[in-house]
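User: Please run a holo structure prediction.
Assistant: Happy to. Please share the sequence and the ligand.
User: Here you go; the ligand is adenosine-5'-triphosphate.
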Amino acid sequence: MAVSFSSMPAPSSVFAAYASISAFIMLIQTMLNQLVPRQLRNYVLNIIHNFFKPKQNCSTIIIEERDGLGFNEIYNAAEIYLCAKIRPNIDRLKISKHFKDTAVTVKFAQSEKIFDSYEGIELQWKFMFEERKKTSKIIDEDSDDIILQSEKRYFELCFDKKDKDRILDSYIPFVLESSKNIKDEKKIVRLHTLACSANYGSSVVWDSINLEHPSTFDTLAMDLGQKKGIIDDLDRFVRRKEFYRKVGRAWKRGYLLYGPPGTGKSSLIAAMANYLKFDIYDLELTNVKRDSDLRKMLLRTANRSILVIEDIDCTVEIPERTGAATSGGDGVGGQCYRSRDQQFSLSGLLNFIDGLWSSCGDERIIIFTTNNRDKLDPALLRPGRMDMHIHMSYLKPVGFKLLASTYLGIHDPHPNFSKIEDLIESMKVTPAEVAEELMKTDDVDIALDGLLNFLESKKNVKRDAWRDNEILEC
Ligand SMILES: Nc1ncnc2c1ncn2[C@@H]1O[C@H](COP(=O)(O)OP(=O)(O)OP(=O)(O)O)[C@@H](O)[C@H]1O
Ligand SMILES: [Mg+2]
């Protein structure tokens, strides 16, 4: 852990003292701000600070940005945690914005101090940096970019000596946890897709963009009990790190989403990603040539992510079963799946996902989708392979009410509601079809009349087709 201690003559009850005199200093500061130039103002304020500083020992922890060649997690956590504590009374700040970010990042300037309190302990953080003699190269862990660094950055954390154990055992873990929560809140979910790259010898690489899919559990029309079941399952999964470790299982969860087109399988995946703030890796199997490519791509996926294989029954063409083509331990070894002119085995995919891949990372979710569960290879359906099978079905009246409130803002029953609900109950209509009708106009009456017409004519078409069949059979 890149933490070092130093002891120096400094205030022990400095923070209590600061608290009581801070109002006084702020008053003087306000007066000085208006009357005195900045440099003179700082000089006067320093004198006042030093005058009031009780002269006792305190402990100081040094938290450097780098720990040898790697980054220091505590430094990053402290930076995130303290940035969230920036108040308007801080004089000097640095701002920056990475081109991928949507918001401006605010950081501290040299020697800037931040006061914090934790369970009755008063603490003082100070941001410092020193010029290095030599510029060093480091790799940014988030973007893989090479960064040239010419300064040594660190935080000094100062507190009363008697609280040292509580700071190390309790406060530092608290800062780590808080920063993780702040990071999660701010995180922009990204969608990674496979792309061919000339720079990498035409092999496939992950390319990513921000996931702009607005689907959330609030906008998803589905059975309420089923929806709650999924949310509870996700919550249980993310908080069970210790459980998975204790029982010796990889921390991963698999979902199979099945149902007709337009019932919300892809929308549910986006809702899950937005809910958990997990990135999505969309594994388009037709872009993969060999088992080895597949493994490489899977190993390049990050933790806390959702690996998605959509339409598992049709993205891979099932040619004749070739028996000797591959080997595998779950009864699908002989079945070869061909992706265009190349081939890889389903067993290769499943064994790798269950074995090495999932044990290499944490908090992995894998989702397969299909329109037709009956067409799936039994290897995908065997117990233990997918933890939860989720049936996305045709629209029900409760789902219709949710769509009406999301698309048209109607919360109270409308005169057309009961006719529409009766029709929906008596036929197979997908949420996508109804959503499309509701989107046609802003006018509530026109939209609901349109939907009513659509449902009635759909029902008549069905009835006519059924009658024609009867006549043909006669
Ligand atoms: N359950 C739903 N709740 C809310 N909107 C839905 C739902 N299902 C579908 N929609 C709407 O229909 C559109 C298409 O749905 P989606 O792509 O999620 O269906 P799908 O089941 O993945 O279909 P496919 O099997 O063709 O991939 C969505 O963008 C959304 O607007
Ligand atoms: Mg889909």
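The chain has three domains: 3-186, 190-391, 397-473.
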